[in-house]
Amino acid sequence: MPPLAFALETHPGRKRPKNEDAIGHALTPWGGVFVVADGMGGHRTGEVAARLAVESILEHLKDKEPSPKALLEAFERANERIFREAQRPENRGMGTTATSLVLDLPYALIAHVGDSRAYLLRQGELTLLTEDHSWVAERVRQGLLTPEEARTHRWRNVITNALGSFPQARVDLLGLKLEPGDVFLLCTDGLSGVLDERTLQEVLKTFPPEEAAKRLVALANEWGGPDNVSAIVVRVPEGLPPGNRPYALPLEAARGAPVRLKLGEEPDELPTQVLEPERRPRIGWRDVLLIALWILVVGYILLGYFKGP
């Protein structure tokens, strides 16, 4: 299999005195893990929260066989670690966004908290995979704001979900089967809030990952650079290994469509939409007996009702 092509770039931007974003990656036998985080809290706490998120997620996943369960656990551990640190008086209000891509070739898993984003460029078309956890994004989904209004709203930076803000993390999970040449972009809102999707698409289509990441960060700064800006660009190799993983994905995800995953009692056994014949529920003799008894009882009640006194 050809080597994975990827690049990571981060910059404080033109208006911020320091960079509170954090990025990181770890190559694995299955592909790799990539994480971007955007800290918040002021002073040094945002920088610390973002760094802790990236470190915790990579530490948990770099030597562990990938699965939706392992990815969720990585985010939960990061949340616990940041939440503990946030209890210190000097760290009050500390939190961070986090978006992670796990390549488990030929599959991809994505976990997401906050308003950092994951995009997929496939056959020249760009798709936003994640949903922002922000006040304005929720109003857009409710039909109360237009996307154009949200981009300039005074509360556009209000985050409704972040690692470290609460004892329990609320994490979005997605899964999909990869196609050769797929390109992923992970970025903070310092990039997505400045550059429109048409620009992102053109840069990702035109340039290899290293050049694309540099150009995207440079463009965000040229167009004002109001915030820290970070980008991770990952290109899937042309030769993908055949593979079945020990975890199951919904049918659409296994066929290549990005699908939101919902973990239940057994996170590694995600339900498919169509049950295989041997797994379809069967009606036993006890079920038949209960149905017959129910029919007799209903019939007896109805007979008494129509017969009258």
Automatic annotation (TrEMBL):
<keyword id="KW-0812">Transmembrane</keyword>
<dbReference type="InterPro" id="IPR015655">
    <property type="entry name" value="PP2C"/>
</dbReference>
<protein>
    <submittedName>
        <fullName>Protein phosphatase</fullName>
    </submittedName>
</protein>
<keyword id="KW-0472">Membrane</keyword>
<dbReference type="Pfam" id="PF13672">
    <property type="entry name" value="PP2C_2"/>
</dbReference>
<dbReference type="InterPro" id="IPR036457">
    <property type="entry name" value="PPM-type-like_dom_sf"/>
</dbReference>
<feature type="domain" description="PPM-type phosphatase">
    <location>
        <begin position="5"/>
        <end position="236"/>
    </location>
</feature>
<keyword id="KW-1133">Transmembrane helix</keyword>
<dbReference type="InterPro" id="IPR001932">
    <property type="entry name" value="PPM-type_phosphatase-like_dom"/>
</dbReference>
<feature type="transmembrane region" description="Helical">
    <location>
        <begin position="288"/>
        <end position="306"/>
    </location>
</feature>
